[in-house]
Specification:
4% strand; mainly alpha; single chain; 149 residues; 74% helix
Length: 149
Amino acid sequence: MSTTTAKKGIGFFIEAVALVLAVVGIVAMFVSGNMGVGYEFPNMPVYLVLSVVAIALVVVSMMLDAKSADKGPGIVSLLALGVAIFILAYAGIQVVASRALNISAIFSWNSGDTTGWSMFYAAAASAGCMVVSAVLLTVAGFMPTFKRR
């Protein structure tokens, strides 16, 4: 009931944009990992599950902030947000790290590989969305998510 009496702050909207970017990053990660036989993404299920857990942690953090809008964010909310930031940044970096050899091959001797370029674009989109989402969540952590009216 307290969410109806709390006014959304700027942090809420930044976190909402970060959640959308994280979902786009997850979809791009899945696309990048399923491009073709030679472009398997090792440990993709682990990073997909971790990313979904990160999104759930952000939602939990937002719900906890809504419950305690008059007191400010609690330690559990900040801890959940911090873990989500770490997971999203880690997953984004792992996408690029797992694709490093494939990407270097595209830029060197195999530049005509259209499937490789598609994989590169999907991996870059995934990593970019995940890292930008983590940065936005970091910024949102310093902004009020909910305020009492």
